[in-house]
Specification:
This protein is mainly alpha-helical. It has one domain (2-77). 78% of the residues lie in helices and 0% in strands. It has helices spanning 2-40, 52-57, 61-77. The radius of gyration is 29 Å and the shape is elongated.
């Protein structure tokens, strides 16, 4: 009986060790891939293609009022 328990515990530790090693390797590989992608494909800052004067001249005052009221109502409801 003790031989079977010893074998079972040994098998449990081997299995847990394999899972731990796989997860550690997965984390290392994800970090390496992230570093490679950021090095060769850096994020470029987002630039506005539409001038802001064009946005303000065509914006409806009623739309701005409705959005402001909705934001105000949401903030009051979710304090």
């Amino acid at each position: 009986m003790t031989e079977m328990m010893t074998a079972g515990i040994e098998l449990m530790f081997i299995g847990m060790g394999i899972v731990f090693a796989f997860l550690a390797l997965l984390i290392v590989m994800i970090n390496i891939m992230t570093a490679i992608i950021q090095r060769f494909f850096p994020e470029e800052p987002i630039t506005a293609t539409v001038p802001t004067s064009a946005l303000t001249s065509h914006t409806d005052v009623g739309t701005i009022a409705a959005i402001s009221a909705a934001v105000h109502k949401y903030r009051n409801k979710h304090k």
